[in-house]
Specification:
By secondary structure, the protein is mainly α. It is built from two helices and no strands. The model has no long low-confidence stretch (mean pLDDT 92).
Length: 144
């Protein structure tokens, strides 16, 4: 009996390797996105803290002026960081799409392999049954 061999086994292995690489890339982009969000939240907290200080404390004109300038600068940093968050999100979504596409391709090949294996096993079973039937007929003919 001939052993089952999937003709696209090398392609399937390549797709599995590519899927793993793309999964690692997705994880890397997710980490970058979360780091950018963390930095954005830290900047927003600084702005909030400065504003609370400016409204709560009795400050000299010089300190008030310095505080307002600091808030303006921090708000500009927040805008820049929001753009970085948006870019990191887009990169993450692109990586997710690529990963899902490669995963889909690998799964299609795996389903094809499973289908071909079932067909092979069915053909082998039919051949085995045919051989058993011939043996049974031969034995019956010899007895009679």
């Amino acid at each position: 009996m001939k052993k089952f061999k999937f003709p696209l086994e090398k392609v399937l292995k390549y797709k599995a390797i590519m899927e793993e690489e793309k999964h690692l890339e997705l994880i890397r982009t997710q980490e970058q996105y979360h780091e950018q969000v963390f930095q954005l939240n830290a900047l927003r907290d600084k702005v909030k803290t400065w504003r609370e200080v400016l409204h709560r404390e009795v400050l000299s004109i010089n300190m008030l002026s310095h505080g307002c300038a600091s808030v303006e600068i921090l708000e500009k940093y927040v805008e820049i960081q929001e753009e970085k968050v948006r870019q990191a999100f887009e990169e993450m979504e692109l990586a997710r799409g690529i990963f899902l596409g490669v995963r889909r391709e690998r799964r299609v090949l795996e389903r094809l392999k499973e289908k071909m294996l079932r067909e092979y096993e069915s053909a082998q079973a039919a051949e085995m049954q045919k051989d058993l039937d011939e043996i049974a007929v031969s034995a019956y003919v010899r007895q009679n």
